[in-house]
Automatic annotation (TrEMBL):
This is Enoyl-[acyl-carrier-protein] reductase [NADH]. Keywords: Fatty acid biosynthesis, Fatty acid metabolism, Lipid biosynthesis, Lipid metabolism, NAD, Oxidoreductase. GO terms for molecular function: enoyl-[acyl-carrier-protein] reductase (NADH) activity. Pathway: Lipid metabolism; fatty acid biosynthesis.
Length: 264
């Protein structure tokens, strides 16, 4: 199947480099004919994102730091000027101080809790609100989450709490915007080797554990997450909203590690 996104325009937020989940989704969207705009956080990521945006024929590349709401407003003002409306949006943004993605959750500081929640959770609500104003004919919005939201993953700590709040936001926003035919969903991805992913202490150990113990006996690829992105952002998923869709080789269904692996 190709051309699923033909005639659709949208914004991808969260590309840092070609390993980013946002890039995996962007590539899949472009392959299906979508027209894309990108944001980047800071000049260093801007330099990495530019050639990627060029490679999919994108001409709109804008700076955006979600801690600075004026920069978020500037992005949507620019999109309104350039395109008038959009059909979809990808939010793949998260941050927490690395020094607190280890050890005990109980030791999270007030400052890092607040900052993690703002960047990794509340930014989604602020962005959805602005994106919805550019979706007069409806649309589809996707964010990225992780299973550490509902089950304790070692070292994921405050990020797990932020992802739980993000997933809850997905459900509330799905109701708020359902009447405008704007669908809001999240992809809960298995571990992927990215900049943000490597910020969690013992990331390699967790990556290998999930690889060994998931039903598919492997981790997921950017292409697989991208494919689910296309599904959720295209008309194929027209009746789907408020969902947390796992793309994790099935790891979330397990109540304990697989016996055949444990007995090896
Ligand atoms: P990444 O490092 O490639 O992307 C994270 C992005 O967040 C970067 O582009 C960074 O610039 C952006 N960001 C951070 N703070 C920001 C701010 N203040 N303003 C604007 N942008 C900001 O890593 P990734 O793994 O592709 O992360 C994308 C999303 O996927 C995140 O929400 C992450 O939690 C989620 N996720 C990752 C994994 C994994 O294993 N890597 C698994 C499940 C979910």
């Amino acid at each position: 199947m190709d051309g699923l996104m033909k005639g659709k325009r949208g914004l991808v937020m969260g590309v840092a480099n070609d390993h980013s989940i946002a890039w995996g989704i962007a590539k899949a969207l472009a392959e299906q004919g979508a027209e894309l705009a990108f944001t980047y956080q800071g000049e260093a990521f801007g330099k990495r994102t530019k050639p990627l945006a060029d490679s999919v024929g994108s001409t709109i590349l804008l700076p955006c730091d979600v801690e600075d709401i004026a920069s978020v407003d500037a992005v949507f003002d620019a999109l309104k000027r350039e395109w008038g409306s959009i059909d979809f949006l990808v939010h793949a943004i998260a941050f927490s101080d690395k020094s607190e993605l280890r050890g005990r959750y109980a030791d999270t500081t007030r400052d890092n809790f607040t900052r993690t929640m703002l960047i990794s959770c509340f930014s989604f609500t602020e962005i959805v609100k602005r994106a919805a104003e550019l979706m007069p004919d409806g649309g589809s919005i996707v964010t990225l989450t992780y299973g550490g939201s509902t089950r304790v993953m070692p070292n994921y700590n405050v990020m797990g709490v932020a992802k739980a709040a993000l997933e809850s936001s997905v459900r509330y926003l799905a109701v708020d915007y359902g009447a405008q035919n704007i669908r809001i969903n999240a992809i809960s991805a298995g571990p992927v080797r990215t900049l943000a992913g490597s910020g969690v202490s013992d990331a390699r150990l967790m990556f290998n554990f999930q690889k060994r113990h998931s039903p598919l006996r492997r981790t997921v690829t950017l292409e697989e997450i991208g494919g689910t992105g296309v599904y959720l952002l295209s008309d194929l998923s027209g009746g789907v909203t408020g969902e947390i869709h796992f793309v994790d080789s099935g790891y979330n269904i397990m109540s304990m590690p697989r016996l055949d692996e444990l007995k090896k």
